[in-house]
């Protein structure tokens, strides 16, 4: 089957839609929140995962991560004052990663993230990501770095010869100010073959057939050092405003006429 990725950018989403009150949850564009599936405040030790992992993507339930004291390829993670901090191993040249095993099809994944203001110590990138996997590999992802937000889908017809994992389709980006040491809210909506990723209300959206696969886990990752808090996952229900919202997003992504 031919793989097609469609993408649009929410360049001025906040100007297109009414602002939400500070005490309300972040706005969703494509879906609405259904049943709460996961609520993790990182306030106490995490329960060990159950099951037998099959690679990095499936076969387990709950949190799977390296809690130290040694930092391997997947880095090291610490629970610190209600945050889950990932620390990249400078020698590994690989992000610190942690995964939550959960079976789902459509979901809203939400968390707060902070790029910690620490020395790079030879680590090349400052970033955080949230990825969804199917039974064997990545399906889609949202990345946050100093330059803002990007989202991408993975291609199950091409394998990277170095990583032996799926190749990425080109990302969709939007610039959002991201300062070291500040908290930002990330929301990843997954519904059918589409995703909407948002950072502090600015969003990108794209579609790809693989996104519709059954999901087996959620991976979070860190380049250099970064922290997560208030990790939530809801069942994603249809949003009756999505056709209108999508049309507005697509209109905002169009270049001015005559340019």
In summary, what is this structure?
With 259 residues, the chain is mainly β. The chain has helices at 13-16, 242-253; strands spanning 6-10, 31-40, 50-54, 58-64, 76-80, 83-87, 96-104, 107-115, 127-133, 138-145, 148-159, 166-168, 172-175, 183-191, 194-199, 202-207, 215-223, 225-238.
Question: Which key terms come to mind for this protein?
Answer:
2 helices, single chain, nine-stranded antiparallel beta sheet, 259 residues, Jelly Rolls, mainly beta
Could you describe the 3D structure shown?
- The structure is a single chain.
- The protein has one domain (6-253): Exo-inulinase, domain 1 (Jelly Rolls), CATH 2.60.120.560.
- Strand 14 (183-191) and strand 15 (194-199) form a beta hairpin.
- The protein has helices at residues 13-16, 242-253, and strands spanning 6-10, 31-40, 50-54, 58-64, 76-80, 83-87, 96-104, 107-115, 127-133, 138-145, 148-159, 166-168, 172-175, 183-191, 194-199, 202-207, 215-223, 225-238.
- With 259 residues, it is mainly beta.
- The chain has two helices and 18 strands.
- The chain is globular, with a radius of gyration of 18 Å.
The total count of strands amounts to 18
Shape: globular
Largest sheet: 9 strands, antiparallel
Structural classification? mainly beta
Q: Class, according to the CATH hierarchy? A: Mainly Beta
Topology:
Blueprint: E1 6-10, H1 13-16, E2 31-40, E3 50-54, E4 58-64, E5 76-80, E6 83-87, E7 96-104, E8 107-115, E9 127-133, E10 138-145, E11 148-159, E12 166-168, E13 172-175, E14 183-191, E15 194-199, E16 202-207, E17 215-223, E18 225-238, H2 242-253
Antiparallel strand pairs: 1-16, 2-18, 3-4, 4-7, 5-6, 6-18, 7-17, 8-14, 8-18, 9-10, 9-17, 10-11, 11-12, 11-13, 14-15, 15-16
């Amino acid at each position: 089957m031919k793989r097609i990725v469609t993408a649009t950018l929410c360049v001025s989403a906040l100007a297109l839609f009414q602002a939400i009150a500070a005490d309300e949850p972040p706005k969703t564009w494509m879906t609405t929140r259904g049943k709460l599936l996961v609520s993790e405040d990182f306030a106490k030790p995490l329960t060990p995962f159950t099951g037998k992992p099959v690679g990095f993507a499936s076969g387990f339930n709950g949190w799977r991560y390296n809690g130290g004291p040694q930092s391997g390829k997947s880095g090291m993670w610490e629970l610190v004052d209600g945050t889950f901090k990932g620390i990249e191993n400078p020698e590994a040249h690989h992000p610190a990663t942690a995964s939550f095993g959960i079976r789902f099809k459509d979901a809203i994944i939400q968390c707060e993230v902070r790029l910690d203001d620490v020395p790079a110590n030879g680590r090349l990138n400052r970033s955080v990501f949230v990825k969804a996997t199917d039974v064997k590999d990545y399906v889609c992802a949202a990345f946050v770095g100093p330059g803002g937000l990007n989202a991408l889908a993975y291609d199950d017809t091409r394998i990277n010869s170095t990583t032996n994992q799926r190749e990425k389709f080109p990302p969709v980006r939007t610039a959002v100010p991201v300062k070291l040491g500040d908290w930002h809210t990330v929301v990843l909506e997954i519904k059918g073959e589409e995703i909407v990723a948002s950072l502090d209300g600015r969003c990108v959206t794209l579609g790809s057939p693989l996104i519709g696969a059954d999901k087996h886990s959620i991976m979070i990752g860190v380049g250099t050092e970064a922290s997560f808090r208030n990790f939530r996952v809801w069942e994603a229900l249809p949003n009756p405003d999505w056709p209108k919202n999508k049309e507005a997003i697509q209109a905002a992504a169009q270049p001015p006429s005559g340019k």
